[in-house]
Amino acid sequence: MTDLHGVLEQYVRNGSVPGAVALVAHGDRIEVAAVGSVDLAGTAPMARDSIFRIASLTKPIVAAAVLMLVDDGRIGLDEPVARWLPELAEPRVVRTPAAPVDDVVPAARPVTVADLLTLRAGYGFPADFSLPAVGPLFSELKQGPPQPQQVAPPDEWMATLSRIPMLYQPGEAWLYNTCSDIQGVLIARVAGQPLPQFLAERLFEPLGMVDTGFAVPAGRRDRFTSYYRTDPAGGLTLADPPAGQWSSVPPFPSGGGGLVSTADDWYRFGRMLLAGGTVQGRRLLAPDSVRRMTTDHLTPAQRDASRLFLEGQGWGYGGCVDVADIDPWNVAGRYGWVGGSGTAAHVIPSTGTVTVLLSQVEMTGPTPPALMRDFWRYAAAA
Questions:
Q1: Which of 144, 167, 190 delimits the end of a domain?
Q2: Which residues of the chain have pLDDT under 70?
């Protein structure tokens, strides 16, 4: 079997990615590989501490922050969110998923904190992106690939959301992404401080996640990778340079996909989950909160309807939970997620494993690319 460096190297050689960083930790045994360059021009070699846009690897971090507020007794999982998010006090739902956006009925019950954490509040992306109620998520809320400087500030964003009907009744269906952004607004309002500040004080500083945040300071941009997307001819086109959209804190800090980070920073977060919410003797999350976070909450029908994104697996709070060993890399209980910027991170409680893969090419759809699958296969056998 090739080593971790070899797994990454083949994708740099064939032009799939300019570079990548990967980490596989089984207990205290850690293997790290950094391959290729931070950009197509070869400005600098990729390094273990290179900084990446981690996209949806933000979701588990933000879900953990919501649970911190639950542990603090400031919110309850079954509480309606309207107390803090009055924009969702009287939501409307399209009569059927395919109905026009003006054919609506009242929500059958209030949206709860747990609905947001399980992505079952009624807002978000289904398998069919052509449904009428999905369009405004792209055009008005700027959902989709992260574009942090283009999204309206939280209060304005929530006001816009209040005018968009839900696709399903609360609790009825798992829908991707939007609920994680709503979680970010919820945290800020409950805590009485901006989301970046709350995450820094309650998670990043205690865990030593020194390079994680919603922007990269000028003094660290020599470690910040360029971000690419695949063009129609199969080549790579620059989507965002180091001095681009992540050069300053955005108007809307996205709980669904706004963070930058490094492999070691996300590893520290994963280790905290494996330790039941504790780091160096300090309790950050209650063990019950970690258990809820890493437990599947979907029904079989919801898992099946979400197959485009979850491939038949489940969803906890902020991440996918494997419920079946359907591939060599699937391990029952594996928790984590992938990011549309070419990132993936998971923890496997049964084996004490953390895996992190960071690359810088935008995924072309929900299906994980070959690099991710080969990385998972290697990690499962290592």
A1: 190
A2: 1
Range of the domain at 20: 4-66+194-381
**Best CA proximity match to 317, nearest among 61, 146, 79:** 61
Say if residue 311 is exposed, middle or buried (CB neighbours under 10 Å; 0-12, 13-18, 19+): middle
Say how far apart CA 294 and CA 288 lie, in whole Å. Answer: 10
Question: Does residue 177 sit in the same domain as residue 219?
Answer: no
As a residue count, the chain comes to: 382
CA gap 250, 194 in Å, rounded: 11
Which among 190, 205, 226 is the end of a domain?
190
Q: Could you identify the residue written with the tokens 């509480």?
A: 79
The whole-number pLDDT of residue 234 equals 86
Residues 6+ apart with CB under 8 A from 7: 22, 33, 374, 375, 378
Q: Which pLDDT score, from 0 to 100, does residue 113 have? A: 98
What per-residue confidence (pLDDT) applies to 328?
84
CA distance 164 to 162: 6
Cα(298)–Cα(302) distance, integer angstroms: 6
- Whether the pTM exceeds 0.70: the reply is yes
Listed residue (374, 273, 262) closest to 333, CA to CA: 273
User: How far apart, in whole angstroms, are the C-alpha atoms of residue 365 and residue 145?
Assistant: 11
